[in-house]
Amino acid sequence: MITREDVRRVGWLSRIELEDSELDEYSRKMGLVLEYFGVLDEVGGDVDPTYHVLEIDNVFRDDVAGEMLSQGDALLNAREKRDGYFKSARIV
Amino acid sequence: MSIDRVRELVDSVGIEEVLHRCSERIEENKLNTFITTDFEGALTRARKRDGNGGGRLQGVPVGVKDNISTRGIQTTCGSRILTGYVPPYDACVVERLKAEGAVIIGKTNMDEFAMGTSTETSYYGSVRNPWGRERVPGGSSGGSSAAVAGGEVPIALGSDTGGSVRCPASFCGVVGLKPTYGGVSRYGLISYANSLEQIGPIATSVGDVALLFDAIGGYDRRDSTSAEHEFDTSSALDSDVGVEGMRIGVPDEYFGEGTSGAVRDSVWNAIHTFEDLGATYEIVSMPHTRYALAAYYVIAMSEASSNLARFDGLRYGYRVEEGDWHTSFSRTRREGFGEEVKRRILLGTYALSAGYHDKYYLKALKVRTLVKRDFETAFKSCDLLLAPTMPYPAFKLGEKIDDPLSLYLSDVNTVPINLAGVPAISLPCGFEDDLPIGLQLIGNFFCEPTILRAAHCFEQSTDFHKRKPGDV
Which of B181, B350, B406 to mutate to test the interface with A (most CBs of A within 10 A)? Predict the structure, then answer.
């Protein structure tokens, strides 16, 4: 079961604002899904987790400057920018 | 319409006329298949390339799912939060399509961030199924599949995280391939669940799907999960090489209690068609199938909660300017994301949070190991596996959208394939009340040539792919 307070907490962690009036509906629908996830408890035995299906190692490129997105292109879609930087809302 | 036929048309009536016909068809069909069209840009790009021909898709119009980056064309992922976002670069698959001469005419509608089975969660409205306008086209690549089925484009790209190419291919009566994980570069694909998703081709025939796969597949150094594997699909469609002696496994668990009678009958008829063609079959058991759906959703939601953290309104897309950083960030996401996306981010965050990580996320990854082992065991005695793609044909718009769990349960036969990372194709194998039924052929890692060959043989021996949708 996931409570209203749990929903509010994960909302905060996820940076998704939720109204008080929505919490019951979210907790009800999320509760049904989590209840279904309970089927995983039936699986016994300990095996290694699979994070990735292929045997692939980390890939590193040579430390040589190459072509990449220009600063101008990277900023193209920003609503607010200044002096070649993204402009964020006040943090502190 | 086939790639060959379109290329003939381009030669006879010219690219401008071909693009005009696509545009008219979209207009007439009114299926809401495209979020953005760019016929003017398409014509300019096609003319620029004219004379530099030689590509296998020269002049062929293509629809690209709206979670695949296209330089200069709006890419929204079906979400309000990316309204107005115009990527400054092309995805690898888009570069490869262009290199073959294909002409991108627009971006196809999809479930928001590919989270759905019906294309009803798109911020830009639901897509309708050309076989029945009151039916869903499947999802999440519903726009791509309905556009191909409705004759708007001969080929399209989708992406498949848990069935999002195969489900709409099945519901719309077209062919769709989910390649081996790592087989097609994800560079430029806007991530939802990065360990599960692959870009896949959709077309009206197995041959066209094979050609499109050949064009987009193969290693790309910009995707760190890209596999260094060279696919050779050249013999897959060779009519001299049939399915004689091919060993087909039929997983019992893929015919669960929710499977409709017509789906069951059509798929069994397909098995007997393969027998007539010289293949043999055996019933196989994949005991962890029962847990695959839950494991899939835990992993997909967990990865989504991380991947979608980048949408903060700062660098691109929709933004609410209000208060400090936290307030602006949280309101942007509140207004920018739809209900299903928010629910999946919240559930994923919950599954990864302290105290629940081992119970949900780690457990799901362990079940993934067991599901993968089921496939490894089956492929010791079989060359491919055969099952229904979806348990039933297209359901009605609005029928399941208010009950997320019932919608998730539709994916029961498609998600195990993504958990394991193996390839699978869906192609038409029958009808129920004039709605198409899809057959799923599943191969071992990098065995796309095997499933393409089997699918092609089946297609050559049957007429299901020749029937045209009635509601366009």
Answer: B350
